[in-house]
Design brief:
By secondary structure, this protein is α+β, with helices and mostly antiparallel strands. It has helices at 3-19, 74-83, 94-98; strands spanning 29-34, 37-40, 56-59, 64-66, 87-92, 117-120.
């Protein structure tokens, strides 16, 4: 998938989470591994209003390459990719995970606060 298409997908997913009430303000970040680094939501950005061209790109050493400045949590995302080489994408959104709808058995089907949703490459 091209970097441009990945940027579009990040913006689409972000907006979907925001519109369904799973993210408020600047809570949460999405990152995606690309060949030469990471794409990550910009610092202090609202997931409901991301523009694909403003999504941050950092190289493998965490140096900002393009887009707006990266999330303040870039160090967490980088560490996650470095320790789990098969990771393709990472969603860190406390409210999304905490407030996810309950399943039919009356208990939460969500992950615990601060857990991560990880997609393989």
């Amino acid at each position: 998938m091209s970097e441009s298409a990945l940027r579009d997908d990040i913006a689409l997913l972000s907006r979907s989470l925001f519109e369904r009430g799973f993210s408020v303000g600047s809570a949460g970040n999405i990152s995606v591994a690309v060949e030469d680094g990471l794409l990550i939501t910009p610092t202090n950005s609202c997931l409901g209003f991301l523009e694909p061209g403003r999504i941050s790109k950092v190289d493998r050493q965490g140096r900002h390459i393009s887009g707006d400045p990266p999330s303040k949590e870039i160090f967490l995302h980088r560490a996650f990719y470095e320790t789990r080489p098969g990771t393709g994408a990472d969603l860190s959104a406390p409210r999304v995970l905490r407030d996810a709808p309950r399943n039919g058995r009356g208990r939460s089907s969500s992950l615990h606060l601060r857990d991560r949703i990880v997609l393989p490459r």
